[in-house]
Amino acid sequence: MKTLIIIDVQNDFMPTGSLPVPLGNEIIPVINNMVNKFDLVLATQDWHPLNHVSFASNHKGKSNFDVIKLHGKPQTLWPNHCVQGTKGAEFHPYLNTKNFEAIFRKGTNNSIDSYSAFFDNGHLKSTGLTGYLKEKGITELYFCGLAADICVYFSILDAFNEGFNCTFIEDASKALDNNKFETTKKDMITMGIKIISSKDL
Ligand code: VGL
Ligand code: ZN
């Protein structure tokens, strides 16, 4: 069963949002035009409480994009984004969500960040996505969305390590930092993850 996982296509990651991904809005028509090529379409939402540890506003004296140590690991501090129940956390209004079979929310625990659709950043807690996919016998996953160098990348890494066959759809994704994206792409190629264009589907 050919399965698409659409990562975090939410208002706050759009050019007019609080944590803008350059040209993030350009992927909407690309995604809408390809969803019918899949047997199953799933999506994620970054879904933070207002007191989330990844927000610079919750750390006295810290600024957006500072990096701190959290549970012994580097944590980037972000502007407030995708706060549960706000407009910014909603899917982009033009994204066709009609055929989404399920939506997985992540980053809901205030004390740990979660870039991947599968696990939090400390790999302490699963979102249940692996179990959901394995129960359905799914082996082949396609990924797209925002941000290509962060949440899409970490979702693909986890999916690969969970034994799924992974493909990244490049023109249906945009990166927050294009230099970092080049590195993550090399990583993906080294691991044997396929990188395609939606035209190849
Ligand atoms: C994301 C930074 C913080 C993402 C989420 O969806 O890529 N990036 N939270
Ligand atoms: Zn976030």
UniProtKB/TrEMBL annotation:
Pathway annotation: Cofactor biosynthesis; nicotinate biosynthesis; nicotinate from nicotinamide: step 1/1
KW Hydrolase (keyword) present: yes
GO function terms (MF aspect): metal ion binding; nicotinamidase activity
E.C. number(s) listed in UniProt: 3.5.1.19
NCBIfam families registered for this protein in UniProt: PRK11609.1
PANTHER family assigned: LD05707P (PTHR11080:SF2), PYRAZINAMIDASE/NICOTINAMIDASE (PTHR11080)
Annotated protein name in UniProt: Nicotinamidase
Source organism per UniProt: Neotamlana laminarinivorans
Lineage, top ranks: Bacteria, Pseudomonadati, Bacteroidota, Flavobacteriia, Flavobacteriales
